[in-house]
């Protein structure tokens, strides 16, 4: 699948549609071909105060991650009742196939949600297609008056009123007096994991920390077939070179900070060396080895992995796969003396995954 000449440069999202209520952005597979090659979709929703994203379902399973603000999401799983859930910065939500969602922001701060997901069953590889229930491009307006009348047992006048009052699409701005359902904190259980409050899976002093989304802390992850994690790398710290050892793709969005990235692929070729910035998305092809070094201000990123319980192999640090090999094998493989091999093996015996800056 991965071609040596495929474009891997990190990209920012482009505006797709929007208005006074907010804007919907998406990453284009023509700018980031790995989306199409890897069957990955990526988009972002930004809602202004009183912005309302109309009820819709998608052709893809996704992970939603709240990048900024506080708001409300309504979720209807197939054949289930609506759950109205309060959401805040750091929240991750698994959205399986067939789920209907709406989003609302009544706060002054813009509500921004990132969506990353699997498009292997989508209409277009590398793109999400959303099906709105209402609005000028909604499912409801597509049926004839006769079909709507029969399905909902409505008279023609009522049907015409319902259809005729939907001139807007996608994202709308509600009046301040509009009454929306109140979210219930208890609805978060089993549906939402706040990555900024969850226990760390790895925590290295002055190095970094990570929270992993998996089937244990967010059971719905099993239904979407994806894993995810939030990584915070401290200032000038390094993330160990590593790769996904179960054929998964890593799709990474830079949340905060900047840093340097190197990516090594087939035939030991460095296929990417760049500085990554907030708002950029990049994809690590299967089995390619990636490493990052944060700038002095540190760096934070959110990733999905195309396996619900991903497995990674790290090539440096105390869990290094290289150090698992016997000394004789390493000495022969590197074609070095026993002294050099021993020096190589003796370093990084305490740090795992994240390496603090040198003192």
From TrEMBL:
Protein name (record): Glutelin type-D 1-like
Alphabetical keyword list: Disulfide bond, Seed storage protein, Storage protein
Similarity comment: Belongs to the 11S seed storage protein (globulins) family.
Phylogenetic placement of the source organism: Eukaryota, Viridiplantae, Streptophyta, Embryophyta, Tracheophyta
Signal peptide: none
Pfam families the record matches: Cupin_1
SUPFAM superfamilies membership: RmlC-like cupins
Gene that this polypeptide is encoded by: LOC110775773
Ranges of residues in domain Cupin type-1: 6-160, 200-342
């Amino acid at each position: 699948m991965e071609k040596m000449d495929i474009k891997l440069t990190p990209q920012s999202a482009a505006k797709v549609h929007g208005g006074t209520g907010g804007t919907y952005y998406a990453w284009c597979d023509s700018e980031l071909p790995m989306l199409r090659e890897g069957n990955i979709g990526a988009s972002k929703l930004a809602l202004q105060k009183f912005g309302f994203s109309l009820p819709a379902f998608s052709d893809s399973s996704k992970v939603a991650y709240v990048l900024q603000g506080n708001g409300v999401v309504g979720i209807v799983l197939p054949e289930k009742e609506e759950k109205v859930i309060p959401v805040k910065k750091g929240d991750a939500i698994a959205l399986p196939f067939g789920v209907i969602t709406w989003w609302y922001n009544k706060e002054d701060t813009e509500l921004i949600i990132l969506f990353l997901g699997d498009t292997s069953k989508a209409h277009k590889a590398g793109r999400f297609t959303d099906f709105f229930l209402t609005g000028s491009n909604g499912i409801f307006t597509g049926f004839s008056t006769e079909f709507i009348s029969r399905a909902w047992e409505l008279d023609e006048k009522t049907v015409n009123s319902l259809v005729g009052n939907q001139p807007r699409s996608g994202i709308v701005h509600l009046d301040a007096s509009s009454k929306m359902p109140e979210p219930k904190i208890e609805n978060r259980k089993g549906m939402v994991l706040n990555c900024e409050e969850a226990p760390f899976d790895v925590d290295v002093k002055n190095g970094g920390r990570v929270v992993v989304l998996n089937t244990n802390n967010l059971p719905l992850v099993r239904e979407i077939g994806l894993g995810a994690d939030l990584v915070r790398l401290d200032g000038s710290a390094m993330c160990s070179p590593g790769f996904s050892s179960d054929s998964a793709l890593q799709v990474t969005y830079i949340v905060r900070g900047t840093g340097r990235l190197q990516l090594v692929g087939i035939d030991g070729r460095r296929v990417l060396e760049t500085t990554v910035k907030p708002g950029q998305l990049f994809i690590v092809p299967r089995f390619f080895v990636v490493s990052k070094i944060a700038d002095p201000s540190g760096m934070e990123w959110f990733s999905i992995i195309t396996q619900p319980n991903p497995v990674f192999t790290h090539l440096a640090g105390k869990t290094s796969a290289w150090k698992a090999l016997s000394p004789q094998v390493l000495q022969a493989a590197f074609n070095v003396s026993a002294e050099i091999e021993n020096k190589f093996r003796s370093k990084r015996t305490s740090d795992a995954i994240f390496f603090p800056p040198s003192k």
